[in-house]
Design brief:
single chain; 169 residues; Rossmann fold; five-stranded parallel sheet; 5 helices; 5 strands; 36% helix; globular
Length: 169
């Protein structure tokens, strides 16, 4: 399995966050070789459309077979940091053929539909295929409540089947 096959894109402004941990756990539940892109590491470079490191991250995301897009819930939706990065992808084709998994973490189940109603439509607009339900995790309990493992048990095969016939570029 190539390193770019499963990519976790973390849109939390705080480095080494629970959002990153959850995204990495999910990625490892899908395969052994993963890449993690933590947008907080780019800082102001995200505003520079010529920045080579950000362009390389865009290339990694575009070539992913499975893309886990993870964000904390901010104001009932995903972070502006994540939106800023995803603006670099053209509509309909920027993530064409990529299997997307929208993931959001929050303090309570109040916003449990946020990844399904806000993040998934964005990924689909960019061309991603989202064959499984979005994943919402309670940030204080996801590591012990079995919710992540339950999602993997239910949807791992569907996600991996979605990449079966994808041609690599």
């Amino acid at each position: 399995m190539s390193e770019d096959r499963i990519v976790a894109l973390v849109g939390n402004p705080k480095p080494a966050s629970r959002t990153r941990d959850a995204a990495e756990r999910l990625a490892r539940g899908l395969g052994d070789e993963i890449s993690v892109i933590e947008l907080s590491e780019f800082g102001a470079a995200l505003l520079d459309w010529t920045n080579a490191e950000v362009q390389a991250a865009v290339g990694t995301v575009a070539k992913a077979d499975v893309l886990i897009v993870a964000s904390p819930t901010f104001k009932a939706t995903y972070t502006g940091l994540l939106k800023l990065f995803l603006e670099r992808f053209p509509g309909q084709s920027g993530l064409a053929g990529v299997v997307g998994i929208p993931v959001m973490l929050g303090a309570a189940p109040t916003h449990a539909m946020a990844p399904e109603t806000h993040l998934k439509p964005l990924l689909v607009e960019l061309g991603a295929i989202c064959p499984a339900p979005s994943l919402y995790l309670i940030d204080s309990t996801y590591g012990t409540d079995g919710s992540l493992e339950s999602w993997l048990d239910s949807w791992r095969a569907v996600v991996l089947r979605g990449i079966g016939g994808r041609e690599r570029t």
